[in-house]
Backbone:
């Protein structure tokens, strides 16, 4: 599975989960917030924030945590299984370099920050280093 395929799979799973369990309230008014809660049939005691105006029922919080942990684990396992960096890791870097406009900036910093890596970590891991090098070569060739 490529990185993009995994991202799409994970996004679909999250979207399916979130459809009935996560809701957003964007308001600065306490009255408007309470009105929205009533529309959902909820009380303040029933929910907790997930940030960025998003809320989830407290009873669903653990399921969301499990989903996101499973997604992180699947990604980490795919990275670990790519022993030389020429498969999943390369596709991960190509996807994220593209998303962070590497073709225009030739700067890897935003990509590495988004993926949670430092250059030191990349240089100390042969598979990650090779995958990043292969991804950069891909951009130079294309």
Residues:
């Amino acid at each position: 599975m490529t990185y993009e395929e995994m991202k799409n799979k994970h996004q679909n799973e999250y979207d399916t989960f979130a459809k009935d369990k996560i809701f957003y309230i964007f308001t600065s008014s306490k009255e408007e917030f309470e009105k929205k809660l009533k529309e959902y049939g909820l009380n303040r005691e029933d929910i907790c924030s997930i940030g960025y105006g998003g809320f989830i029922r407290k009873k669903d919080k653990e399921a969301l945590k499990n989903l996101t942990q499973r997604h992180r684990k699947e990604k980490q396992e795919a990275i670990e299984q790519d022993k030389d960096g020429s498969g999943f890791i390369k596709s991960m870097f190509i996807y994220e370099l593209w998303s962070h406009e590497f073709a225009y900036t030739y700067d890897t910093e935003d990509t590495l920050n988004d993926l949670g890596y430092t250059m030191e970590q990349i240089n100390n891991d042969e598979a990650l280093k090779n995958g990043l090098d292969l991804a950069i070569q891909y951009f130079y060739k294309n």
